[in-house]
Amino acid sequence: MSADGIKPEEVLIGVVLRLLEGTRHVAIGANSPMPAAAAFLAQRLGGGRPHVSLQQSPKHNLFTDGGRELFDAAGQGRIDVFFLSGAQIDGHGNINLVAIGDYARPKVRFPGSFGSAYLYFVVPRVILFRTEHSRRTLVPQVDFVSAPGVSPPNVYRRGGPVALVTPLCHFAFDKSRARFRLESVHPGHTVEEVLDVTGFEFDRPAAVPVTPLPSLEALYLLRETVAQELSALYPHFAERVFGLAPRAAE
Amino acid sequence: MTEILRPPEAAVAVIEDGMTVVVPPDYSGVAMEATRALIRRGVRNLHLVTLPASSLQADLLIGAGALASIETSAVSLGEMGAGPRFAAAVAAGTIALKDATCPALHAAVQAAEKGVPFMPLRGVIGSDLLKVRPDWKVIENPFAADDPILLVPAIRPDVALFHAPFADRHGNVWIGRRRELVTMAHASVRTIATVEEIRDGNLLEDEILAGATIPAFYVEAVAVAKHGTWPLKFGDRFAEDTAHLREYMRLAATEEGFRQYLDLHVLRRRAA
Fold this sequence. Notes:
The complex is a heterodimer of chains A (about 250) and B (about 270). Chain A has about 250 residues and is an alpha/beta fold. Chain A contains 7 helices and 12 strands.
């Protein structure tokens, strides 16, 4: 915890919260506790909007047509924001959820591409979220492209990456240049540190702002109500960050 | 006529070596009790299709040597990480893998549901998945100029296997909103469902239940398996057994540990 009592995870949730401004429907994939926290928080602050859907929770699953409905709804343009990550993310916004090393005989094999190879194209605003900021995760070139950051002009593409949020900083993605730009560095960290642990090249302004902290109202809601909601969905995360004992899933 | 209602061991007898089996993800209802029965029987050379991802079920079947191949968009135990036996088998090259992405699997199974040979899908162009999936084709949209689009071939499984809340004695299976199970049943030659309970009467005679029911004419066998998804969750009825899954992850990190798990929790019958 930092001197002002705000945890690093809460700073990240605050960054994502700002990126969710003005959205109608945010969908959360498996295993995304901080994006889920930000989405629930946005919903509380927005009086019930945006819609937040989580496939794996009966209570928060807004779909009634099976697992395909998220993808169909995204194809119809109804999902504004989705979160993706990658074992590797490169400087062109390519993400790798498959393997390190040779595909056929990988050094490390990861779960797989999930819905990334489709959602990266059809969801207007994809927020990349990576909880490890290092030269092994943020690389010059991914070993396997689960989903590309940009596409040639003739390839149908409604969306793509808009930001990359890590424990150190917030990068914005410039689609026209297929490059990241350092938007802000989180309190307690420096641009030098970001340069040191980032494996890809990126643009940055002469003076890089410090990431703003979430408002007191947002923090209060996060700790008092959203944390409980998260506990049912992401018990390990809620236990670690908010000190809540795991309880049965809702 | 063979009875539709059978014990789990008899229900999975429908699944023969070499068949293609489609299974749902954790949020839908994974037939774990039936999967353990299959492994005990020593089933071999199955082609597993996960619609669209899997966790312990795929990992157990891989570790037990029951699969010749797997088509999946992910084998993951959520926050705990990739399926350890899946990752080990892929790294060692001991399983044939068709890497996919979720909506491609949904589309491929929907193609079989409609009885058509393929389905178009947006996205994917520029993904390395195309390099490792020579059976996926990119064509020009015949209805527009300069618009490349992906086609995925239909997947028609021999068997759909899942766990559902309840069924009736006719073999009608209630699946609620888990409609990927309907798609699986439509696309597959035959369906095997384990259920929490059997209800009296005919589900199709109740309009409220009928719309969320797979009719018996798709269903080959139904077996009662109480808490049949254990140690995985089942909707809002049962939470996952996190302590057990952590123990699995610990043991399955090595081949030797996995054998120990298999012996303890699969080959010996689970105590009631």
